Amino acid sequence: MSKAIVETAEKMGCITSASLSKMPSDAPLAVSVRLINTRNGSLPPANPMGRRVATGVGATPEQAALLSGFEAIERYSLQFDNRLTDRMHSFWSSKGMPVIRGRAELALGAPEAGLTVSSKGAAAGPDRDGAARSAIFELFEHACVDRLMTRPGELVEIDPNEIGELGAVNAWLDGQLRRLRLFAWRNPKAGVFVAARCSDVTGHRATQGTAFSFSSGQAAVGATHEAVTYWRNMVSLEDRGIDLASLEQADADAIRAYRGALPQAFLGDGSSAGSVPTDHPERDFKDLARAYSDCWGGSLALFDFTVPEIGLPVVKAVHMSEL
User: Fold this and answer.
1) Which of 35, 144, 245, 321 has CA 20 to 30 A from 66's CA?
2) Where are the alpha helices (DSSP H) in 12-157?
3) Is the dihedral of CA 248, 250, 252, 254 positive or negative?
4) Model pTM above 0.85
């Protein structure tokens, strides 16, 4: 995964160049944003820009720009394109045989499906195996959210100071009068899920991020970066002024909830204090897929969405009970 791949996608007109989000000068994080141009025949999202958005968070502006580039290529690759075949064949499935699905069932913005298909279960990686593993992590993350919203007692609240990778971010948030709380659950078959909550000291104006990984530290960093980015997005919206009528319903409701006009449900409410879960041994994507099926039932199929002209491997993992 190199800078050259991102530059190729920029030159092809698939994604825009990176724009840095406004952050306080002493912030230990940089946030980069890019817009994704639609592919042939793909419906644009229903937002004022008419384009999908990618975000990257890194320790430096350069790292953030690179990460936003990878996410932008992933989202570009996932879009429907009427120049491609109507059917997609999985390159691997836990059933042991290829699974065939219509592209419109899997791709973003297919006219037949409207805007009902999401990027859930999709990821880019340094190679196809790595992208497949990250894609399955995405499925685990979403499944854990669904499970733990109704089983808060399975989560434990862990001390952010025990996550060494978050030292600088946690100290900076403290100086911004923001409070970071982390809630974790170890799946014995696959890895660690972490939900991060970033709020005012009183617990108000909270934002949440989630992540799943083999490592507690990596999951905590991913979830925290997401929660902090969400918070800064809200700050930017408030700086510009909020026009709820111009936003998609989901975005408008998110702002209303952030400002206290709608109730918010957060992972971790009602959980007790605990220790940082031990890391899980790393596994290849096939073992990880089987672990997912053991946990949630059904089977998984993996579809290759890589755009050859760009060269960044992109995989979408699909839980077959969802099709």
Assistant:
1) 144
2) 61-78, 103-106, 128-149
3) negative
4) yes
